[in-house]
Amino acid sequence: TTSNTGIVLTTGYRLSFVCSVLRSAPPCSKFFSVKHTADVQYSINPPRSEADHLSPIPLNDDTVLLFSMKKASEEENDNKLSVRYYGTDKKMLGTAVLHLTAVEISLDVDADRDGIVEKNNPNKGCWKWGPDGHGAIILVNCDSERRWRKLDHEQDFIDRESDLKDMTTMVLRTKGPAKLPEGYKLTMHISQGDAESIRFEILQQTKQADQDSLRSKYPLILQSACLSAEVLYRRGFAENKFYVEGIRFPDKDFDGLVTINLSLLEPIGPGIPETPIFTDKVVLRIAPWIMTPNTLTPKEVFVCSTTDNYTFLKEIRSFVAKSGHNLKICHEYMNRGDRWMQDEVEFGYIDSPHQRFPVVLDSPRDRGLVDFPYEKLLGPDFGYVTKKAQKEDVNSLDSFGNLEVSPPVTVNGKKYPLGRIIIGVAFPTAAQGRNMTQVIQDFLWAQKVQEPIALFSDWLCIGHVDEFMTFVPAPDKNGFRLLLASPDAGYKLFKSLSKQGHGNATLFDGVETETPRPVDDILNDEELQDHNNYVQSCIDWNRDVLKRELGLDEGDIIDLPILFKLVKEDEEVRALAYYPDVVNMLVLGKNLGIPKPFGPKVNGRCAIEAEVCSLLEPLGLSCTFIDNFASYHQLLGEVHCGSNVRREPFDFKWWNMEM
What we know:
Protein name: protein-arginine deiminase
Active site: 343, 464, 466, 641
Structural class: alpha+beta
Shape: elongated
CATH class of the largest domain: Alpha Beta
EC number: 3.5.3.15
Oligomer: single chain
CATH superfamily of the largest domain: L-arginine/glycine Amidinotransferase, Chain A
CATH topology of the largest domain: L-arginine/glycine Amidinotransferase, Chain A
Family: Belongs to the protein arginine deiminase family.
Strand content: 25-35%
Helix content: 10-25%
Low-confidence stretches: 11-16
Number of domains: 3
Distance between the termini: 59 Å
């Protein structure tokens, strides 16, 4: 007679245990029979008839006994199974007895994305997009719960319980005897391959007598520097909570997926490593960073105060107040003379079933506003992320006036419910040219949910897409219109003015630093016409790209009258707006803060303003023209360049996208 002990694992309800019947059989064994306690159940493979179970069963080379237990054990070795072996004459030759301990083990997450950690979801070990998808979600813990400015995930301890709401709850559920059999242990682990491309932290909640010590209550047990750790097995029915935080967004070398494993290790013998006899796993995805388009509701407007922008600030304050939104001013001690709020940061957010908060992306331009996002925005439930680039690789196209996002669109049947990111780069065939630095492009592409579109913007001196395009809300069609700068529309307007007898009306009337220029003089300037023919061809190329990539037709586009001029810069000829660029506007719902163009006046009203209003007001939009000539336009920017808006997030949940 041989006797041994074993452990039967149950995930959720039960998991079968397999053994070869022949392996423990005495020589000359030809038949066998099985006896067991009430909570054990078994089957034989290959299957036998019911009659075979009532008498000794033929023993073959491939006979396998499959057994399980109906419920978890209350005590160690409280169940057993025995196999009797018989010879040819069915005389008993020996008995093998296996003493069994059943343990129920399940590593659980919110795999169905309803905000509740359900028990043993069958889909917890994989991740699927879509409304019928599954798989849990982790947030990058990139806000700061503390008075001092430091990202929460940069610390290996918790000192505020409020930080837990930014983490994903994972539960180890166990049921069984008071302790595991001698030598058995539970370990949580990640693979070496994952550790080379992902980083995350797991904190285990413990019951400490000193409840004031959060470091002892939530010790860090697993991180990239430590691939495995033993975890506590608790007696009876127990739920052991863990808190998982991401510390890195998806990127070129990381698809955002994380696998966490829990294994039960079995002792073999002295000096021999334990063997895993069971592994449960969960797969989670780190939430992407998501941008917000002009069509979403504004929450806060940001501008800078400088020594020379009093008029602009006064008009912006009035416009924002009229629009019913909150204005936040970054003062000179913080902006250090850098007024380009749009270029420094891009507001977005991260989302999960259990938590959502805004996250600001800090550009690598690092000028006067370099400290603003970290010092003034980062805080509780307000995250921060940046991508570092080599200083010599950073150029004007890395400022975030060159980073926009469309409203939701459908393109050839493919839905983009969160819109598409838009960036500006050099023309695809250009041997030399400025491009957005690769680390930023890689980051944007890796987020997946707002697939980027690259436009040609290097033809502009500053090189930003917001110099020739924007989006405004509309009550019909796609719910928005694409506005494009159009020299053709500008010349059409000026020719119409000349034909109506207003050829002597002047551009720049009332601007102290500019010489007024009559409409007819502009129309007769052949060099300026050549400049604008070139600009129009560049915009037309982008127009075709936007129509194709956003699924638009001509009815979705409005052309605004803007002229440009070419200047030589670093041996390259590039374009600037000839007068304030009315496309570079601040969009607050139906209220538009538009650069005042100082166009030719007809009957006391600026003809460019009148034309813009005639194009936009039928959509229910209200146009307010803001004087930014001296403080922004002459410094090569406009209203949008000098402002920024944090908006409400989408109602649509990114994990429901069809990929």
